Amino acid sequence: MYTAYKPISKPIQLYKPIYVARESYFSDYMLDASFEKDDEFEFIANADAYSVQDEKELILKHLRTFKTICVKSSLVQEDHKTPLRLGVRDRGIVECCLMKNIRTSYLIRYSSIDEKAYVLSVNQSRDHKDTLPTHYVIRVNKQNNCFYLAHESKLRHYFFPTFRKLVQHPKILEKIQLSRPIARRWITDEDAIWRIDFNELNIEAPAGGFAWWEMKNSPQPVEVNIRKFNTSGEFSLKIDVIKNVRHANLVAFYGLCWDPKANETLIVTEYMSGGDLKTWLEKASSLPTREILNNFCLQISRGMAYLERCNQFHGDLRCKNILVKGELHEALLLKIANYGSAMRNATSNLQRESAPEIFKNQEGTIKSDIWSFAISMTVMWKKGQDAYTGMSFEALKQHMKSNKPYVLMCPPSCPRAYYDNIIQVCLRQQQELRPTFAQLVNVFKRIRDKKAFETADIQSYYNTDLSSAYAPLISVSKRAPPPPPVNALSTKTNTYLYREAPPISPESAPSPTIITEDSSSLYEMVYLPFQQRTQSPQQSTIDTLTNELTDRCFF
């Protein structure tokens, strides 16, 4: 048995001193040191060593130009009413802080991974399908040097010289409900951020499941799960993984709760009203259209591409761990749950969806998830029925250990080209010959756009650039030995390209400031710690392509 999870407590202070200019100042000898009245600055340090004539100077960061300058203290004053909270970039921590405050509370922070962007984070969900706080990207316009909401079509044409004017403008308040920023002196620690008082939960079933989290002035529907782990280290490792993960297609982790009566630790996560995908399919009156099923595959592959990009693998990807939210088939939102399962011993968690290498007691990788995804796709096309029809689990286990290839029958409802060029490709025995999730995102998007389910051209959709500038993967029949790995995605996962792609020219390279049509302008769909953003010049081609194909809401 293990004891309650006790993370190392780290102090968290969202607020960093913000100064505003008392008056405009123009520097004759250094243009970068000039600024206008009411301009906002982040305090960096005192500049006593550089003070002259007994006048104190401050080292400040000009928030409109991102320049660090030395300013006379008489020219600025501290702003105690600022909405800026620049002490924390981490989106997960920010969301937890907001959810512990009143509805429509907000703050403005630095972007998680883009050093030239800010984010307005509001404790208000986008719509009925989601319960997470909403995030709006703020950039600086290069022409007028003012702030604007970059991805809001109805608001992006409004420009503001200061953040305070932005959050007070009637047009902004008409579209975004803002009450007040999180208290300037609100200080907590990492332990408190992820800890939920048991008395705040109104659990409807003793074994867990749906519950109401009685937050500040607004009850929140949540999911409560009781997890069994072999050791406390195993449990804490899972928590350390899932608490830093934020993506639109991954179930969000809210925190931990200690049940004093049952002496158990409860994991509190986002509530998904539709239940798991397998049960949802079984109960559906008919099989969803192939367009809807392809959209399901696209959503799942997006969430997995994010884990792939973070050098993590799921370890238990199946329809039971894919949750559903929404009512209309076309508008269903799918999110992947239990993505910390890989922290457990994979062989002790064998499932019918497990890859052959897992059955052979080998270490699992993201390519093992590719196999599991293929089995899950088969289950989807069979309306929730078992992929291995008529085969017992023991027989399946023996077959997987025998090194004999097993060919799944194509579901009657699945187009043959779809089955041959996607499902079968993901079921290759050699891990290195399976595609990546980033490539699959590209495939499903092309099928959606071209409505091409029954064409052999699907094989060419593995091209890693929509302009077809990249060479396609070799066909299934040409299984040549892969080249040596080039800086694989992780030290434990060897990932190969069949043919090396040419470098991206500056003209054809997609701009990181452009949001694709598949992106949600109100979501920071992909979260990656800022310190992981910098990439080595020797970065492998496969890693580069993965970064490009993952949806670009990076904030």
Automatic annotation (TrEMBL):
Listed transmembrane segments: none
InterPro entries for this protein: Kinase-like_dom_sf, Non-receptor_tyrosine_kinases, Prot_kinase_dom, Ser-Thr/Tyr_kinase_cat_dom, SH2_dom_sf
Highest taxon, organism lineage: Eukaryota
Domain annotation Protein kinase: ranges: 199-447
Any GO MF annotation of the entry: ATP binding
Alphabetical list of SUPFAM superfamilies matching this protein: Protein kinase-like (PK-like), SH2 domain
Swiss-Prot/TrEMBL keywords: ATP-binding, Nucleotide-binding
Protein's UniProt name: Protein kinase domain-containing protein
